[in-house]
């Protein structure tokens, strides 16, 4: 159930609205060991041309939390342009901008800030692509660059829409 009506400028993004649970989630990066994880994300309407976003990931065996994100996906009214504002629990905020089509949302960081005591290396760039696949699942591919590593795929997740 949506907490608010869907704004007309979000009609073309209805495919991403809802709660999604991972069915396959893998991460890798040149500076860490590859890993598997579980994740739940949600995009919910508040009646404005913006979606509330949240993400919670956890270890598939130990069940301990791994990463948390929260933010807003705002549409520029009358266009397919979006801004994705995300706060990460490890002390990073990102403003990611891009556009969407009838089944794909692509954003790239335009600004990244971090708390002064955040752990190195610094994240320099984030690129996210959400795509609604033909089978109705949602796929996320997230790439990032740091002060030590050029732009590299970091996460690949397939989600199944949760029925409420």
From TrEMBL:
Domain of life, per lineage: Eukaryota
Chain segments annotated as transmembrane: none
Domain THAP4-like heme-binding, residue spans: 10-160
InterPro entries (UniProt xref): Calycin (IPR012674), Nitrobindin (IPR045165), THAP4-like_heme-bd (IPR014878)
Reactions catalysed: peroxynitrite = nitrate
PANTHER family xref list: PEROXYNITRITE ISOMERASE THAP4, THAP4 PROTEIN
Protein name (database record): THAP4-like heme-binding domain-containing protein
Organism: Exocentrus adspersus
Lineage of source species: Eukaryota, Metazoa, Ecdysozoa, Arthropoda, Hexapoda
